[in-house]
Amino acid sequence: MKTITLTLFALIACINNVFSQAESSAVNSILWEISGKDLTQKSYLLGTFHGPGATIGYAYLDTLPKYKEIFESVEAVATESDSKASLNGILKGIKDLKEGKHPVYALMPDSVKCLRDIFESQEEYLYVDSIMQRIKNENNLFPLNPEKLKPYYTTGVLGFYEAYLSPRRPKANQKDKGFQMMDFTIESKAKENGKRVFYMETYEDLAAAQEKLDSLFMDTCSLERQSHLLYVVCKNLSRSEEEKENVKTDDYLRKLEGWYLQGNLSAALKERDQIIGEKGQSLFGIRQYSEDYLRVGRNKNWIPVIEKNVHQSSCLIAVGALHLPGENGLINMLRKEGYTLTPVDIHE
Fold first, then answer.
1. 315 with 44: CB under 8 angstroms?
2. Does residue 105 lie in a domain region?
3. How far is CA 263 from CA 139, 322, 343, in A?
4. Is 6 contained in some domain?
5. Domain total for the chain?
6. What letter would DSSP give residue 337?
7. First-residue to last-residue Cα distance in the chain
8. Which residues contact 36 (CB under 8 A, 6 or more apart)?
9. Span 80-111, pLDDT tens digits
10. How many alpha carbons lie under 13 Å from residue 106 in its C-beta half-sphere?
11. Is residue 5 part of a domain?
12. Maximum Cα–Cα distance for the chain, whole Å?
């Protein structure tokens, strides 16, 4: 699973607009109109819901008349990155895992002779080892030697495995064979309708940001703390389908989905910050790294792309919903550049 202060306007003639901007400091819609700054046509910013395990797909957008009206009216559509390139990136990741190719920063230091030695609890080590053995027995698509890899890297491999390769992967959206991911479907339908399609970044841009984050974390977080994270992830992977269903209402992802359906992206961002603060900052120490590289840094890089394109034609820009709210979100960043951002009532 990838992540926004008000701009004050000086002219009294814009007082109504100023009021609406202040009112919308709490991001209360997934769809926002972009106007002002000499734009000759309106464009729109859409927060999407995506990621492994998501149960909200394109079908939800299809129930919103205002979204459909705007989609039909715009000349260009953007998503975060090219879906074909993303798929190729996933396939390359699988190929590298099959061949046992791992980055240098992911390799265990020579001073560690046995994975058992870096676990503070032998009980945790034995549990992790049992999960590794189970995965080895159920799928031999790629070699996984946790003795040679830093625990945080192994954690990432397990996440990749569970999302794309595991025969047991419990995805709620797979219960509906007609499930369509929002971003990919938006891109596909835009192409089908002859609209100009552009992207906020390349897949390589995102992969580089993620790799920088991973490398920084693995170099600064102790192996003992990484090993505990690996244990926590293994515990989650071992839950049965029934257990996962029973804890569904308490799951972080389900909470985010609830806020998304309400259009309350500010609350969703607060929820994410609390989860990262409680379970990330205190235990894993990656909150600021993640914020800087994967949300704020990308948002800053996207602003010039948005500006260039909205001055060319009317656009619908569809990106992950948590890129919109907060001080360093796209809504506030665009306001600082002089644009007017107005929430759209998606149900009207």
1. yes
2. yes
3. 40, 11, 10
4. no
5. 1
6. T
7. 32
8. 338, 339, 340
9. 999 898 888 878 877 887 788 888 889 999 89
10. 19
11. no
12. 71
Q: In what order do the strands lie in the sheet with 43-48?
A: 196-199, 76-79, 315-320, 43-48, 31-35, 340-343
Task: Give the distance from CA 269 to its chain's centroid.
Answer: 12
Angle between helices 203-220 and 151-164 (to 10 degrees): 140
Strands (E), 127-171: none
CB proximity list for 59: less than 8 A, separation 6 or greater: 178, 179, 180
**Residue partners of 278: CB distance under 8 A and separation at least 6:** none
User: Which is it for the CA torsion 214, 216, 221, 224, positive or negative?
Assistant: positive
State pLDDT tens for residues 18-64.
Answer: 333 333 356 689 999 999 999 999 999 999 998 767 889 999 999 99
Tokens of 229: 């994270």
Q: At residue 95, what is the residue type?
A: K
Domain span including residue 243: 12-343
Residues composing the chain = 348
For residue 2, is it within any domain?
Answer: no
Q: Which of 227, 45, 37 is nearest to 118 (CA)?
A: 227
Q: List, in order, residues 6 or more apart from 348 with CB less than 8 Å away.
A: 65, 66
Backbone angles phi, psi at 339, to 5 degrees: -90, 160
| Torsion angle of C-alpha atoms 197, 330, 44, 319, degrees rounded to 10 | 50
